[in-house]
Amino acid sequence: MVSKSKIKVRYAETDQMGVVHHSNYAVWYELARTDYIETLGITYKAMEEVGLLVPIINLQSKYIKPAFYDNTLIIETRIKKLLKVKIEFEYKIYREGEEQPINTATTVHAFVNKALKPINLKKESPTIYTKLEQSLEY
Amino acid sequence: MVSKSKIKVRYAETDQMGVVHHSNYAVWYELARTDYIETLGITYKAMEEVGLLVPIINLQSKYIKPAFYDNTLIIETRIKKLLKVKIEFEYKIYREGEEQPINTATTVHAFVNKALKPINLKKESPTIYTKLEQSLEY
Amino acid sequence: MVSKSKIKVRYAETDQMGVVHHSNYAVWYELARTDYIETLGITYKAMEEVGLLVPIINLQSKYIKPAFYDNTLIIETRIKKLLKVKIEFEYKIYREGEEQPINTATTVHAFVNKALKPINLKKESPTIYTKLEQSLEY
Amino acid sequence: MVSKSKIKVRYAETDQMGVVHHSNYAVWYELARTDYIETLGITYKAMEEVGLLVPIINLQSKYIKPAFYDNTLIIETRIKKLLKVKIEFEYKIYREGEEQPINTATTVHAFVNKALKPINLKKESPTIYTKLEQSLEY
């Protein structure tokens, strides 16, 4: 499964180089993976409410071309890897209508409880784990 | 009492107009009033730990001149008004070495508990209230 | 004329109080007034390209209720006042489906050129001025 | 050479998980590498003024432990690799007084001109290139 998120670049996201400041991409990956799991009927908010957090432990980002103010961007998101204790998402960001991505990235997240201690998602939240697993297959 | 905070403008705080994006000033006021109360021996962190929060309820900001990347800025902070249920801070931001402020602002904050319900600070935390009150006088 | 913008609160916009950090509202007002002028067939990007900038000179914001992660918010924007050298916008932010705003604000902006010097918009860009003026009336 | 930068975590940098939102680290790396080159007598501002930009093309970040509001953090920065057309910085972030980093990262930057076209730094700005090169050696 690949989810698609659409965003419009905000003025506040630009810097004096005239392009989007690179720190904003991490914010976009986050809303993109939230869209991904919402497609599965899971909300990040509901996960937090039952005490499941998924903090980032690794981020890799490749900036290929700049994004500009007012650009409409499409973020394609998929799960690259799912383990019992962590998950890896992959992102490709395109300017709307273009075929080459301007940015590609991966993020790895641990499954932890409210005390920020690692948990085994398959054991603690089998329903969520199964939904994530199934989305990998189609 | 007037506290002084010094900051250096970060690249990420600029926008494509080549100046600091106006949304960052609210972040600076916040660290400036934190410095103010730390001068009194109170930390915002300790306040939160005892369940006292001071969310903003009003913000007024006057942008006089732009701030630029790498500028060193001085923020002067004082309490303008202290009531049992809320507090008003006043800020003046200067480029280091200049006499005219580039920005002036006020913020009003409510005293609330963790459930975000209003509290009477004088009654709930008389020590903190007294320290704030005394700082108004000298 | 009143324009409506819809946004979804991003995780990165929250703070450890569990609500949206107040500095983000200024970012939202900005995208809301951009939507307003786009409704008139003007883009902020096109304005910048002809050398017209509209930096903020005054911001007033009243925080009535908090906004939370994942909330869908509606921002209603209108022009409150239009002068030859500056413009005032007014904003009301609602949680989707609610009748009472959680935040109200005004921003005042100067019309300046690329050197950040004030200009008379009616004289320099009569087409844009007229469109803004007409939107005030219906 | 290793430069050290000190920052204090701002409230606005936290999120509702109660830790620093991960997107802020990229802002910190940026101010850390700015400090590094300032130690060499180069300012990023001066580089921009002569038309030399160093946009990021790759970011890798490993989040080991969370950072909290009000933490004082030390960022150690060094050049990992210098080529004629790009440069790689390495960062280690520590909570003050601790021996294990809470975050490690690398960023790769291209040398480009104002039109965002790649340039050969050794040829275009030999003085800057030499200073960077020498800092690698001691």
Model description:
Chain A has 138 residues and is of the alpha+beta class. Chain A has a single domain (3-134), classed as Roll (Thiol Ester Dehydrase, Chain A). Chain A is built from 4 helices and 5 strands. In chain A, strands 1-3-4-5-2 form a 5-stranded antiparallel sheet. In chain A, a hairpin with a 3-residue loop joins strand 3 and strand 4 (86-95). Chain A starts with a strand and ends with a helix. Chains A and D meet through helix 1 and strand 2 of A and helix 1 and strand 2 of D. Strand 2 (56-63) of chain B pairs antiparallel with strand 2 of chain C. Chains A, B, C, D: It comes from Natranaerovirga hydrolytica.
List keywords for this structure.
elongated, five-stranded antiparallel β-sheet, Thiol Ester Dehydrase, Chain A, 138 residues, 5 strands, alpha+beta, 4 helices, homotetramer
Distance between the termini of chain A: 5 Å
Shape of chain A: elongated
> CATH H-level name of chain A... which superfamily?
Hotdog Thioesterase
Structural class of chain A: alpha+beta
Number of domains of chain A: 1
Q: How is the main sheet of chain A built?
A: 5 strands, antiparallel
**Percentage of residues in helical conformation of chain A:** 25-40%
Instruction: Please state how the strands of the largest beta sheet of chain A are arranged side by side.
Output: 1-3-4-5-2
- CATH topology (level 3) name of chain A: Thiol Ester Dehydrase, Chain A
- The poorly predicted ranges of chain A are none
Q: What is the multimeric organization of the chains shown?
A: homotetramer
**Could you give the count of β-strands of chain A?**
5
CATH class of chain A: Alpha Beta
CATH architecture descriptor text of chain A: Roll
**Main interface: chain pair and counts:** A-D, 23 and 23 residues
Number of helices of chain A: 4
Beta fraction of chain A: 25-35%
Radius of gyration of chain A: 16 Å
The H/E string of chain A reads EHHEEEEHH
